[in-house]
Amino acid sequence: MNKTVIETTNAPGAIGPYSQGWTVGDLIFTSGQIPVDPATGAIAEGITAQAEQSCKNVGAILAAAGVGFENVVKTTCFLADMGDFAAFNEAYAKFFTSKPARSCVAVKELPKGVLCEVEAIAVK
């Protein structure tokens, strides 16, 4: 089976022993993306801006693999506060218009103290 690491400067680099994503056959797996601006390293304020940046980072990895948001079949979303669910959904819906399957859970804490993280599985 053909396996390829996905690398792009248009999304934040890994902050640990992992890659931004993998292509395995016709499947694309992204690592969880937190809302770090890849150009500046800055983290936006508020759940809406953070959700949008996390989605943009996922999109950059998908683009590096030669696909787009319409190819996503499953996402997993992590929120630091389930009280942000509605605002997160509003931002998320702008990117994942094909409505892939999704899990969304609240977690105790996310890297760098961010409010959300998004990962995706897509098909070519």
Show unreliable segments.
none
Q: What profile does the largest beta sheet have?
A: 6 strands, mixed
Number of strands: 6
Oligomer: single chain
N/C terminus separation? 15 Å
The percent range for strand residues is 25-35%
DSSP helix count? 2
* Alpha-beta classification: alpha+beta
Task: Characterize the structure shown.
- The protein is of the alpha+beta class.
- 22% of the residues lie in helices and 27% in strands.
- It contains two helices and six strands.
- It has a six-stranded mixed β-sheet, covered by helices on one side.
- Strand 2 and strand 3 (27-30) form a beta hairpin.
- Helix 1 runs parallel beside helix 2.
- The longest helix is centred in the middle third of the chain and has 18 residues, at 47-64.
- It is globular.
- The mean pLDDT is 97.
Properties at a glance:
single chain; 124 residues; 27% strand; 6 strands; 2 helices; 22% helix; alpha+beta
What is this structure's SSE topology?
Blueprint: E1 3-6, E2 21-24, E3 27-30, H1 47-64, E4 72-79, H2 85-93, E5 101-106, E6 116-123
Parallel strand pairs: 4-5
Antiparallel strand pairs: 1-2, 2-3, 3-6, 4-6
Helix pairs in contact: 1-2
Précis, in short:
The protein is of the alpha+beta class and 124 residues long. It is built from two helices and six strands; from the N terminus they run βββαβαββ.
